[in-house]
Design a protein that fits this description.
Layout (H helix, E strand, L loop, with lengths): L2 H23 L1 H12 L12 E2 L5 H4 L7 H4 L2 E9 L5 E9 L3 H13 L6 E2 L9 H6 L2 E2 L14
Parallel strand pairs: 1-3, 4-5
Antiparallel strand pairs: 2-3
Length: 154
């Protein structure tokens, strides 16, 4: 199994764990969002009904930290749509390696089509490059230029 396949499996598992976590802590919100989701067709929504969780420029997505240009050149800022736990269509963004962009587009198309709820998708720069802050806000992100926890290795 290659690294891309492992990443995709990890991403799907993360989405499932987030859903389970939110169901445990928010039974009422999840039930109401599922009811709303079943009554909304993706074709019925126009851009004025989309909730913008992230609409950063490329420069904003990489601000606040000094990332080598060789790494930045391998990355892309991807805009995705998904249904939130509020049952509404949201727009967010991921910073990720260019090699997995098509796979992530397919995953988010599936997530949108099945109305699998996602809390938010915002680049980690919005959280000062802190995994802890991003995770505590139930945010889905991808690339984070940081030291591996407990090491001095980037």
């Amino acid at each position: 199994m290659n690294k891309v396949s492992l990443f995709l499996i990890e991403l799907l598992i993360t989405f499932c764990l987030v859903a389970i976590n939110n169901e445990l802590f928010s039974q009422q919100d999840l039930r109401s969002s599922q009811t709303t989701n079943t009554n909304i067709s993706s074709n019925q929504l126009d851009s004025s009904e989309i909730i913008i969780d992230s609409n950063m420029s490329y420069e904003e997505a990489f601000s606040g930290i000094n990332i080598p240009q060789a790494i930045i050149d391998q990355l892309e800022l991807l805009t995705v749509q998904y249904f939130g736990f509020d049952g509404k269509l949201h727009l967010g963004q991921l910073v990720l390696n260019k090699n997995v962009v098509q796979d992530i587009k397919e995953i988010f198309n599936f997530i949108k089509e099945t109305k699998f709820p996602v809390n938010k998708v915002v680049p980690i720069s919005e959280y000062n490059w802190s995994d802890e802050e991003s995770m505590s806000d139930n945010n889905t992100s991808a690339f984070n230029y940081r030291f591996i926890s407990g090491t001095r290795v980037i």
